[in-house]
Amino acid sequence: MAIKTIIIDDERLARNELKKLLQDHPDIEVIEEAANADEGIEKIEHFNPELIFLDIQMPGKTGFDLLAEVEKVPKVIFTTAYDEYAIKAFEVNALDYLLKPIEPKRLADAIHKLQDELFKEKIGMGGVFNRGPLTEIDQVFVKDGERCWFVKLGEIRLFESVGNYAKVFFGTNKPLILKSLNALEERLDERMFFRANRKHIINLRWIEKIEPYFNGGLLVDLKGGEKIEVSRRQTVKFKEMMSL
Length: 244
Description:
The structure is a single chain. This protein has 244 residues and is an alpha/beta fold. The protein folds into two domains: 3-124, Rossmann fold (3-Layer(aba) Sandwich); 156-242, CATH 2.40.50.1020. The chain contains seven helices and 15 strands. The chain has helices at residues 12-22, 37-47, 63-69, 86-91, 104-124, 181-187, 232-242; strands at 3-8, 28-34, 51-55, 75-80, 96-99, 139-144, 147-152, 158-162, 165-169, 176-177, 193-195, 200-203, 207-212, 218-222, 227-230. The longest helix has 21 residues, at 104-124. It is elongated and about 65 Å long. The N and C termini lie far apart (44 Å). The relative contact order is 0.09. Residues 124-131 have low confidence and may be disordered.
């Protein structure tokens, strides 16, 4: 199966050059291209590619801005002429980073990396890919000020409501994203993420301890150290789910 790919770069010559190089890789199928971030966002949402080649410096929004606005982030290989972005790109855990002009060997290495990762994920998910709720191996892009991360949903233990934003807890990080808890709840897999109360969604796999709490609720200890109250109303649902 060919890997559906979109090239996003404001330079037409750079897009054409990359397409030419990709002719040597028949398993990469370029289905669309975009000349700026807004066009790129639209095409990612519409065509749901598995991979994007993404320029960082573009007029208007950067490649990082694009990633922050996409709901479900595909695999990303950055392509840019500016090497000062390399460290930032790896901080966000991109698949690879290609400096322009792109060398055929570096491109081949990046594609091998991609194939390895896709194969591992396919095995891990029993070969199932779907467009339903976001799964634990789906990655989201989180941008908070100058810092950026790619995070697999399975690594996120908690979402906390802060007005129109949500605080995302993973590792020692707690960045904010511009998404309401209700919007997140609609997209998250309910077998894995549970709305504990008005302010919190917890990852069930990160629960360490559960104890009774006052008013008929529960208190859940997460492996990250957070203690989250499950409201009385949600406790009924929680007990059914967890067969308590």
